[in-house]
Amino acid sequence: MDVKSYINDWQKSYINDLTGNIMPFWLEHGLDRVNGGVYTCLDRDGTLMDTTKSVWFQGRFGFIAAHAYNEIEKKPEWLEASKSCIDFIINHCIDENGRMYFEVKADGTPLRMRRYLFSESFAAIAMAEYAIASGDMRYAEKALDIFKLILKYKNTPGLLEPKYLPTMESQGHSLTMILINTASAIRKALPDPILTRQIDESLGALERYFVHPEFEAVLETVGPNGEFIDTITGRTINPGHSIETAWFILEEARHRGWDKHLTELGLKIFNWSWKWGWDKEFGGIINFRDCRNFPSQDYSQDMKFWWPQCETIITSLYAYLATGDELYLKRHHQISEWAYTYLPDKEYGEWYGYLHRDGSVAQPAKGNIFKGPFHVPRMMIKSAELCKEILANRI
Fold first, then answer.
1. Residues linked to residue 172 through DSSP beta bridges, in sequence order
2. Can you say whether residue 216 is alpha, beta or left, with left for phi > 0 and alpha for psi between -120 and 50 degrees?
3. Backbone angles phi, psi at 347, to 5 degrees
4. Across the chain, what does the average pLDDT equal?
């Protein structure tokens, strides 16, 4: 493989696809120029199917638009889109306790609150990234305040309704891992000791509780002290989620001068998760596995969703940057060949989200409450950045 040409070509592809396809699709069809913010429930051609707004996507697209502005090109319309989403959050999506809703109407009328803290996490990274882009550090300070609120709710017993009754105490992988990325994003704008402390806490919890060498897997749900819960839920492996965790860890390893322990941990999780997730028959990363190889309960268990493919593209480049081992470029080629064969909509633009195991389209909509402008553009921005680093440091 001519590594230099391979990386060069992909870097150009990511930038061209982001600027010529993904961002224009969402700015044209998704941006709400009346109420502010972004709609995500779009049909294949961008037709608006539902004006319900996902609050976490106000934060997600607020982050993406500012991140693209900071890393790819300083387009004023991207900065304006970011501010529109952030202003919509501030003006409409926060309750009297500082918590954020999960769904609101087009004008911001609240519809639903969930027990999770993801709306807050994505709002925080949006504000931090916008602070960097705009130079207005008030948004970074607001991001830090939101982060502290997240920790208050996470750490104060009784503030958040538990997922299960006390008869089965448990903890989930999701919040533990997302706080690494959230703290890292805020730290770029406003370094504060609380951010690195939380990253250290999350890294320690991941390794102590969720990494289970007996299965060579990261488990999604474990007991309070990492106990294996021998139920369908306790045996669940989400390969895409674990792979995303791997690149969060590798990113922190890079931040710490390629810390040896963190690098090895990130690579180990990626290697394990690739074995669980890569579909040897059809290609692509499947949704769920059972660590004891029982049938998975989830109805979408062998489908191919858009986001695990995106996370695997990023992680393979991070792993190559960390090691120079061409095994990871081989994986990048495998996942990229599969993803770019089946996911992009060559007629209407953007990517499909939901495929059957063989890569055929399960449903063609470009967005809903859970899919929108985040994983695909983040992959392109982050991968373009990693290609640049590889060209500078590995070739």
1. 221
2. left
3. -90, -50
4. 97
DSSP tag of 270: H
What per-residue string of b and e applies to 49-78 under the rule 16 or more CB within 10 Å gives b?
eeebbbbbbbbbbbbbbbbbbbbbeeeeeb
Q: What is the pLDDT of residues 193-226, one digit of tens each?
A: 999 999 999 999 999 999 999 999 999 999 999 9
| CA distances to 68, 84, 126, 309 from 131, in Å | 13, 14, 9, 30
How much is the average pLDDT of 132-161?
95
Q: Return the pLDDT at 394.
A: 80
| Amino acid letter, residue 64 | I
In sequence order, what are the residues at sequence separation of 6 or more whose Cβ sits closer than 8 angstroms to the Cβ of residue 148? 194
Residue located via tokens 């370094």: 191
Interacting residues of 356 by C-beta distance below 8 A, sequence separation 6+:
303, 304, 362
Contact status, residue 58 vs residue 110, Cβ threshold 8 Å = no
Residue-wise DSSP of 374-392: SHHHHHHHHHHHHHHHHHH
Concatenating the DSSP letter of every residue in 94-146 gives B-TTS-B-SEE-TT--EEE--S--HHHHHHHHHHHHHHHHH--THHHHHHHHH
User: 155: exposed, middle or buried (C-beta count within 10 Å: 0-12, 13-18, 19+)?
Assistant: exposed
- CA–CA gap between residue 67 and residue 383 (Å, rounded): 13
CB 247 within 8 A of CB 315: yes
CA distance 244 to 220: 13
Tokens of 211: 């990494």
Q: Which residues pair with 344 in a beta bridge?
A: 351
